[in-house]
DNA sequence: TCTTGTTAGATTGTCGACAATCTGCTTGTC
DNA sequence: GACAAGCAGATTGTCGACAATCTAACAAGA
């Protein structure tokens, strides 16, 4: 038989496209944290009715980068230092788990893909395209999760990644200078190709710790000024209440 | 000032109520895996238009217990042995992390809440209410995650829990006999009150392992018969594709 | 001046109808 | 009989309009 695999056909619903557009706008920082999303205005701009737009927003709310308050509006989530800290500490655990799981599954295809993504990061770095740099770096990092053959882990990591990407983008936006970070990933890639799993896990943990401190400091500095969308605080999250008691 | 705190007002949107109704139906197994959700029919039964229903469905899709295929329909996710395995192995990691984090945060309020939830499980067990038993057991288990003071962890665990609850409910449904499991949780609760964190972590891991094997065997037996909704396979999940290359 | 009630405007939530798409059946042709 | 084309029927996706709710400004009264 012919050994040609077709890629799945593109999503042809407006909803999916809206989701992609909005997500991109949020993750690149074009929509700022705390900002309110006016349905009517966005719908007009996109030449779309409010129905698919609202459905798209619901998805992003569940994805964790929007938050909705009934009859008040839907807002981009606020970035608190605690959130970043939480996300990072969990990410470390997930990384360790992912490496453990994917370690015996490494093969030539893995190494090739690893190099490919590493190259993409270097490319973006050369081009001084910081947005793309963040994106590719996270994709490089995500390979271990994709390769771990655990769909739940992958979903979890992708949710985490959305926020991390948003945090990084904001950080980059704040200070306009591009990160030099030329070959930060070299060690990471080398260790993933090596034979010492423990070393790879340790490096993943420390490597992350690195730019984390910087990011955290930035978030703390943001915390001072009062965000105009400050009332868009935690809503929902109380699924577990013991209703019958 | 008066020291009375009011609980937040109930969500008064139809959407929220629909979400709750649908989630309950799915998690208790009233809606079976692979089953298609006909929008028109459900909307009529609930006396609601399709708009809020569809928004509710979008939320549950992102929550991971429904899956949607454009122009084909929305289905309850299929339960594969691999999914259960994945969820459990990740859950073990999360438990360990949660215990580590909440350990220094334990106080009297924690112990009280622990006892309260433990009592709820025993109550449900006495009443032979298996659905409620599953629910309360998971709530007991969830306390460590709620107490870990990490919102991202909590969200992640709640997503996982949804599936686990669904799996358990299906399992219970299959074999009608209620689980004896009278005091399975006694040791768990005792260790969480004790001073040996490592022991608590170890127990959490092993205790889970217990009913896991049973559940997994059941899932494997299901895998034989062809589900009528079999084509409702993984859709989406490919957010990470490198679009510009 | 402070509080409370009222009202107008804007925004979100919901509805019913229409358009686009899929599925299965029928029909026609070889 | 096998197969492709085409035609209902049903279902999902989208639209425009209406209802419910919130916000802020303003007026009335203590």
TrEMBL record, chains A, B:
<dbReference type="GO" id="GO:0003677">
    <property type="term" value="F:DNA binding"/>
</dbReference>
<dbReference type="InterPro" id="IPR036390">
    <property type="entry name" value="WH_DNA-bd_sf"/>
</dbReference>
<dbReference type="Pfam" id="PF00392">
    <property type="entry name" value="GntR"/>
</dbReference>
<protein>
    <submittedName>
        <fullName>DNA-binding GntR family transcriptional regulator</fullName>
    </submittedName>
</protein>
<feature type="domain" description="HTH gntR-type">
    <location>
        <begin position="12"/>
        <end position="79"/>
    </location>
</feature>
<dbReference type="InterPro" id="IPR008920">
    <property type="entry name" value="TF_FadR/GntR_C"/>
</dbReference>
<dbReference type="InterPro" id="IPR011711">
    <property type="entry name" value="GntR_C"/>
</dbReference>
<dbReference type="Pfam" id="PF07729">
    <property type="entry name" value="FCD"/>
</dbReference>
<dbReference type="InterPro" id="IPR000524">
    <property type="entry name" value="Tscrpt_reg_HTH_GntR"/>
</dbReference>
<keyword id="KW-0805">Transcription regulation</keyword>
<dbReference type="GO" id="GO:0003700">
    <property type="term" value="F:DNA-binding transcription factor activity"/>
</dbReference>
<keyword id="KW-0238">DNA-binding</keyword>
<keyword id="KW-0804">Transcription</keyword>
<dbReference type="InterPro" id="IPR036388">
    <property type="entry name" value="WH-like_DNA-bd_sf"/>
</dbReference>
């Amino acid at each position: 038989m012919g050994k040609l695999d077709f890629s799945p056909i593109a999503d042809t619903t407006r909803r999916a496209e809206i989701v992609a557009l909005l997500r991109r706008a949020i993750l690149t920082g074009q929509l700022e944290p705390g900002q309110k999303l006016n349905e009517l205005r966005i719908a007009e701009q996109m030449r779309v009715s409010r129905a698919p737009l609202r459905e798209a927003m619901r998805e992003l709310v569940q994805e964790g980068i929007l938050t909705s308050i009934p009859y008040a509006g839907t807002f981009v989530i606020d970035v608190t230092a605690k959130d970043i800290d939480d996300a990072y500490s969990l990410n470390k655990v997930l990384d360790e788990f992912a490496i453990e799981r994917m370690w015996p599954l490494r093969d030539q295809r893995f190494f090739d893909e690893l190099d490919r993504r590493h190259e993409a990061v270097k490319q973006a770095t050369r081009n001084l395209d910081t947005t793309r740099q963040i994106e590719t770096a996270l994709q490089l990092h995500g390979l271990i999760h994709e390769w771990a053959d655990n769909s739940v882990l992958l979903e979890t990591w992708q949710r985490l990644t959305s926020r991390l990407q948003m945090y990084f983008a904001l950080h980059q936006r704040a200070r306009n200078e591009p990160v030099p970070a030329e070959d930060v990933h070299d060690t990471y890639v080398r260790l993933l190709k090596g034979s010492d799993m423990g070393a790879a896990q340790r490096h993943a943990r420390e490597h992350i710790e690195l730019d984390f401190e910087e990011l955290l400091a930035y978030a703390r500095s943001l915390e001072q000024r009062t965000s105009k969308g400050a009332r868009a605080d935690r809503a929902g999250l109380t699924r577990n209440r013991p209703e019958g008691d």
